[in-house]
Automatic annotation (TrEMBL):
Keywords: Hydrolase, Metal-binding. Its cofactor is a divalent metal cation. It comes from the Eukaryota. InterPro entries: Metal_Hydrolase (IPR032466), Phosphotriesterase (IPR001559). The lineage of its organism: Eukaryota, Sar, Alveolata, Ciliophora, Intramacronucleata. This is Phosphotriesterase-like protein, putative. GO terms for molecular function: hydrolase activity; zinc ion binding.
Length: 405
């Protein structure tokens, strides 16, 4: 007989079902260690450091300061998170935080391990296949073979089977879907094919970040999806497009013209949910009041089991040390959206566990028959050697003596 168990890979630790019960709260999309300064247009960088005098300008335009783009300090993250995990919401249970920094943007295994040990929390990371396309000749025949769908698939498969740094990823991602050129870039097309194949074959979730931007690639993604991908693909930060409508409101025989802001692509958002996508929202990457209203509306429509909410920490200016809300934005958000206890449990725990729980292992269970001593009644496995006398078995010498004398 076999029993199958599921577990989540948190760095080099396997969280089995009994371990998952100890998780109090999950932040499903945070950038803990990340370096985006390598992508900054240096002609636009005009601040060397973050100070009281420029923090608001940097918060409005993060790429004006390289220091703001580089989250590299274990000490700073330890300071930010130490208070977080003492919050009553954890109820003496462990935190699980999903590190959304992919391996192209400065994912740091050593620092993740150090932080996890300091805080005694679980951290989950992903894996993204990535190359600097500016240095690759896409017309070269050798390049086309080297970056074929099969070769990319083999590399991604290697990470989920054998891994590097002795740390298996728990999901594919994060992938910035809006930055994939799926029209005429062969490597991007092959990478998406490989991601979807591995996701289907191994039940590995894929985390896409839409970055609150228009993303025509969603249709191309949907066209390549299979039924096995349902519930395994997370779309973080979809864009909400607004329009203002003039409404005439009549009150006490007076007519007043009022401007009302409405979401003009709300049907498209509901369509994604009805196709069983998981939608995630980073509080720090949206207008706060707009996201509160949107979340309330989605909860009223019964989508609480398909929603993930995170802070979306990404820059130094997001941290409490620099005047931001840091990892605490979710707690104000829970109050302002008036979530029920069950909705909190789903959105901040159950939904992400269901997404991440892709690993399984089987254990053979062999039923062992028990034998009972005729003298003392003690039970033992039937297949072990015992003391015998006159064709009878006994568990010990004292029992044998009692039977004989």
């Amino acid at each position: 007989m076999e029993e199958e168990y599921s577990y989540i890979t948190a760095l080099d630790v396997e969280l089995k079902e009994e371990d998952q019960a100890e998780i109090g709260f999950i932040l499903p999309h945070e950038h803990i260690f990340q370096n985006l300064s390598q992508f900054a247009d240096q002609s636009l960088v005009d601040f060397d450091s973050i100070s009281l005098f420029n923090i608001q300008q940097i918060r409005d335009q993060p790429f004006r300061c390289n220091r703001n783009l580089n989250l590299d300090s274990v000490e700073e993250m330890h300071f930010e998170m130490q208070e977080l995990i003492s919050h009553p919401v954890y109820k003496n249970r462990k935190a699980l935080i999903v590190e959304a920094t992919n391996n192209q943007n400065g994912q740091d295994h050593a620092k993740l391990n150090e932080l996890a040990k300091l805080l005694k929390i679980n951290l989950v990371k992903g894996f993204t296949f990535g190359k600097d396309l500016s240095k690759i000749d896409l017309n070269d025949e050798k390049t086309k073979v080297l970056f074929s769908a099969q070769n990319i698939l083999n590399q991604v498969d290697f990470e989920f089977e054998l891994c590097t740094n002795d740390q298996k990823p728990s999901y594919i991602g994060e992938i910035e879907l809006s930055e994939l050129n799926l029209e005429n870039n062969l490597i991007h097309q092959n990478a998406l094919i490989a991601y979807l194949h591995i996701s289907k074959a191994k039940k590995v979730p894929i985390l896409f970040n839409l970055k609150n931007q228009p993303t025509p690639n969603i249709e191309k993604l949907i066209s390549q999806m299979k039924p096995e991908h349902i519930g395994r693909i997370v779309l973080f930060n979809p864009q909400f497009q607004y329009e203002e409508k003039r409404l005439v409101i009549e009150k006490e025989n007076e007519q007043n013209l009022t401007l009302v802001k409405q979401i003009k692509n709300f049907k498209e958002i509901l369509s994604l949910l009805n196709q069983k996508f998981i939608l995630g929202f980073d509080i720090l990457r949206y207008d706060y009041n707009d996201l509160v209203d949107i979340t309330k509306l989605l909860l009223q429509k019964g989508y609480s089991k398909q929603i993930l909410i995170s802070n979306g920490v990404k820059y130094r200016s997001d941290l409490r040390k620099y005047g931001g809300k840091g990892f605490f934005a979710v707690f104000d958000f829970i109050k302002d959206t008036q979530m029920s206890d069950q909705q909190i449990e789903d959105i901040f725990k159950n939904n992400m566990i269901a997404v991440l729980q892709w690993n399984t292992f089987k254990v053979k269970i062999q039923e062992i028959k028990q034998w009972k001593c005729p003298i003392c009644g003690k039970e033992q496995p039937e297949n072990i050697q015992r003391f015998t006398k006159l064709g009878k078995e006994f568990c010990s010498i004292p029992c044998l003596k009692k039977a004989v004398f």
